[in-house]
Amino acid sequence: MFSYYGSKSKIAHLYPQPRYDVIVEPFAGSARYSLLHFDREVFLYDASPLIVEIWRYLIAASERDIRSLPDVPSGVHIDVFTQLAPVEKALIGFNLCRGKAVPRKRGHGQNSWSQDRERIARDLHKIRHWRVEQCSYLSILENRTATWFIDPPYRYANTAGNGDRYARSTIHYETLRYWIHSRRGQVIACEGTGADYLPFERLTTVSANTNNSTVKQIDELIYTR
Ligand SMILES: C[S@@+](CC[C@H](N)C(=O)[O-])C[C@H]1O[C@@H](n2cnc3c(N)ncnc32)[C@H](O)[C@@H]1O
Question: What class, spelled out in words, does domain 21-224 have in CATH?
């Protein structure tokens, strides 16, 4: 529904199919795996209040709400649209750039926001039944028997060197390893180049843009149980 740093938009289809009718994403971000399997019962959690607010907004929004969001031409600052709520600005801002950890404030170049807006409006029916909560993964109370799609900030984050970071991210990876082992049901855990706190295997290799406009190859790793 929105572009985001670390999103699995291009590779969500490479992960195993959910074996359960319930999917839990404890590090939701833009929740691309759940979106692919949207008709399951979906529970999203994220430590970021902004990410959770965007999901809550989208779950409740009408198609008309989305279609009435304005175009943001190149060079125009989002704050000129004084009628917009902060969450609407953030949703638009994430779609004014590709794969950023914070929403963009100004339109630039030829962005695809107007096409994204239409796609979001058409996809709203997929997420009406989803539930979302703001908390750290360690505070999730219920250990549901479910497909747990676990996509944390990567241990050696930003191998691409483009400066992106999640706002609220302090992960102790040994604790995460124990927590992953304790999940009930199916586990699909994601990581990147160099992570070894679980017996990860290579899923695929993706290209990432760096600060100096070069492209770097990064391994996407997977652990399943
Ligand atoms: C790699 S992104 C998830 C990407 C997602 N799979 C997608 O397709 O967009 C990781 C997310 O974890 C969140 N996060 C960071 N630390 C967290 C924590 N301790 N508990 C829960 N979420 C956390 C970040 O806010 C970020 O949204």
Answer: alpha beta
- Segment 66-101, tens digit of pLDDT: 999 999 999 999 999 999 999 999 999 999 988 899
Regarding the beta carbon of 136 and ligand 1, being less than 6 Å apart is answered yes
pLDDT in tens, 195-216: 999 999 999 999 877 766 778 8
> What residues does each domain of the chain span?
21-224
For the entire predicted model, the pTM comes to: 0.94
> How far, in Å, CA of 98 to CA of 70, rounded?
19
From 149, 169, 171, 191, the mutation candidate for ligand 1 (largest count of ligand atoms within 8 A of CB) is 169
Neighbours of 103 (CB within 10 A): 21
| DSSP 8-state symbol, 66 | H
Total Cβ atoms within 10 A of residue 63:
14
Cβ–Cβ < 8 Å for 58, 127: yes
Whole-angstrom Cα distance, residue 43 to residue 129?
A: 9
**H/E segment holding residue 134:** strand 131-134
Alpha-carbon radius of gyration of the chain: 17
Residue written as token pair 């971000």: 29
**Count of CB atoms situated within 10 Å of the CB of 65:** 14
Contact 103, 94 (CB under 8 A): yes
Nearest 5°: the CA angle 115, 5, 187 is 110
Query: Using a 6 Å cutoff on CB, does residue 11 contact ligand 1?
Result: no
User: CA angle at residue 160 from 196 to 189, to 5 degrees?
Assistant: 35
